[in-house]
Specification:
242 residues, alpha/beta, Rossmann fold, 6-stranded mixed β-sheet, 33% helix, 17% strand, binds adenosine-5'-triphosphate
Amino acid sequence: MFLKRISLLQDQVPNYNQYPFNIPAIQVIDQLDLASPVTFFVGENGSGKSTLLEAVADKCGFNSAGGGRNNTYETHAAESVLADYIRLSWMPKVSNGFFMRAESFYHFATHIDELQKEGADAYRSYGGQSLHEQSHGESFLSLFMNRFNGQAIYLLDEPEAALSPQRQLTFLRILHELVQQEECQFIIATHSPILLGYPDAQILSFDGEAIEEISYEETDHYKITKYFLDHREKFLKELLED
Ligand SMILES: Nc1ncnc2c1ncn2[C@@H]1O[C@H](COP(=O)(O)OP(=O)(O)OP(=O)(O)O)[C@@H](O)[C@H]1O
């Protein structure tokens, strides 16, 4: 793995009452140690996972709307304010990698189409076909299978968004091969109890007073999903009738 620590430059934070420094989990970051090639960010909606991931992506030099170092294109995505206030500690440093956010993947696909029109063989890295001509889930898997390789860091924001449960398992297989064979590092914000099950991953929860490591079985994703599947009728009766 390459990225070992994310630190917040607390003495330089201009205002703790303003976004992004007003997010509870973010404002108390001192040093966040990454202890495994696969780190998951988990937490409630709005707990700050994307904000931190985007800041890391920006600091890596990746397009904060999605892409690698060479993907320069305009979007409505704002610059990451937080990026100026974090420090990344590497051992060793890698510059290869990719930031994928499900919500702006459409714009990224358009950017690849434009590169192809300009004469570059841009589709080669994405399964030989426009990402717009593949289903949402197929285009995600094309990205993971064809574009991801070599020693690199991959920052993924909810990669499960378009993937069926079966394809999430396929994704885990690709992830495993990239970690084992290419020594890739992943930081993944996710709500998927399937992805979170990846063995030996570090799971960082944004739900407490500080970002802290928790086990798979301690995640709400596991607990709620398990309870739901084990007691579906009772659970829904309580939920819908009370
Ligand atoms: N550009 C912005 N300006 C002001 N507040 C913002 C901005 N972007 C996000 N926020 C707020 O910051 C908080 C954290 O948002 P963020 O997108 O990081 O959450 P998240 O944990 O990734 O959530 P989700 O699981 O829903 O994707 C939220 O309360 C959100 O409303």
